[in-house]
Amino acid sequence: MNQDNTLNNLNAFRAIACWVVCLYHAAFILSEHYPGVMPVLDWGQEGVYAFFVISALVLSWSMAQGQYQWRFIGKFLLKRFTRLYPPLLLSIGLWLLYFQMGNGSISQEVLIKAFDSALMIVPFKGSLWINNLYWTIFVLFQFYLFQALAYPFLAHANHLIRRVSFLITLAMTFIPTLFFPEYRDIKIVLFFHLPIFSMGHLLFLYYKKIITVSEFVVEFILAMATCAFLTGYIYGMGYHILIAATLTCLGILFVKSPPNWLSFIGKISYSFYLIHGVVIYTVIYYLSEFKKSASGSLITYLLIQAIAIFAAWLIYLLIEKPSARWAKMIHYTVK
User: Fold this and answer.
1) What pLDDT is attached to residue 5?
2) Residue burial 221-231, b: 16+ Cβ < 10 Å; e: rest
């Protein structure tokens, strides 16, 4: 089963996930003149969870293709680092350029934020991200480490080992609730997101025919129930996260021929995701007066989307595509 043929719709869902996040982050431009669209645009923040579902599916698939084993953990993490870090560092550099442009200099506080963000040590220091969405990259890095350790169990051919591992994974979701009930910034902790990542992994198991349809349905419902209980009951966040993740999975399963233009945006989605924030604030910096009118705010909003896509395409060509090529050069050696 070839990934390109089986999952040829994934880029479209990547595009939707990153684009709705951008639409959400720029929504404040429209809030004064178009308040009616705000409840719809607020859903864009859940695009992050579509990314998590897709990331789990693609990562598990890649590990299966590479015949991943624990002894390859170093190369596995190096591959992920090589693939993701160069675009991340560039986006941090663009934020520094933005602060330089706006203030005429870069303060020590901003430099500390940039340094801590680059090293992903913000949660350990209690400092601040230079761009708030970097917490999602921090969660992804936690997931890569988790997957490096847990994948051989979660994809095991023995159904008992695989199912017990899945149930343990869902049980781990409640570790912060049981042992750190006063911890507030729960979304930066991997355990909170394990039901969402599990949904993506279940898609992988289903596509690879490692599990049957009935096992997929039962375990998917368990993942949904865990997410609903955690977000809706324990933390009182409602069910937006569950709905976004579930719709993503259903879309991947049943929408096989999405528009080609979405596939293009999906190809550059990681760069788009990383740099749309600095595009938003740079455009506003130059069009601060223009956006005050109803028509001006709408034009500014649409202009941001176009510039962000164009800038992401350039970064993809110059940085992301080469880094992906470098990552592919790191091979596991199976003897």
Assistant:
1) 60
2) ebbbebbbebb
d(CA 72, CA 54): 23
Q: Rounded to the nearest 10 degrees, what angle do helices 47-65 and 240-254 cross at?
A: 50
pLDDT at 1: 39
| HSE-up (13 A, CA, CB side) for residue 26 | 30
* Predicted TM-score (pTM) of this structure: 0.93
Nearest alpha carbon to residue 27 among 43, 41, 46, 48: 41
Residue 236 and residue 240: Cα distance in Å, rounded? 11
Nearest Cα to 147, choosing from 61, 22, 244?
61
pLDDT averaged per 10 residues, the chain (length 335): 65 94 94 92 94 96 92 94 95 95 86 95 93 95 97 96 97 88 83 97 96 96 96 91 96 88 92 96 90 92 96 96 92 67
180-185 long-range contacts, CB within 8 A, separation 24+ = 185/123
> CA-based Rg of the chain, rounded to a whole angstrom?
20
For residue 179, the model assigns a pLDDT of 79
Distance CA 257, CA 160 (A): 36
Q: Are 296 and 29 in contact (CB under 8 A)?
A: no
Give pLDDT, residue 126.
87
- Considering Cα of 283, then 284, then 286, then 291, what sign does the dihedral take? positive
Q: What is the DSSP string of 279-308?
A: HHHHHHHHSTTGGGSHHHHHHHHHHHHHHH
Token pair recorded at residue 86: 């160069």
First vs last C-alpha separation in the chain = 23
Amino acid at 120: M
Query: What is residue 288's predicted lDDT score, i.e. its pLDDT?
Result: 86
Question: CB atoms < 10 A from the CB of 109, how many?
Answer: 12
φ/ψ of residue 120, rounded to 5: 55, 40
Cα–Cα separations (whole angstroms), residue 304 to 162, 300, 310: 45, 6, 10
* Confidence (pLDDT) at 13: 94
Task: Write down the pLDDT at residue 2.
Answer: 45
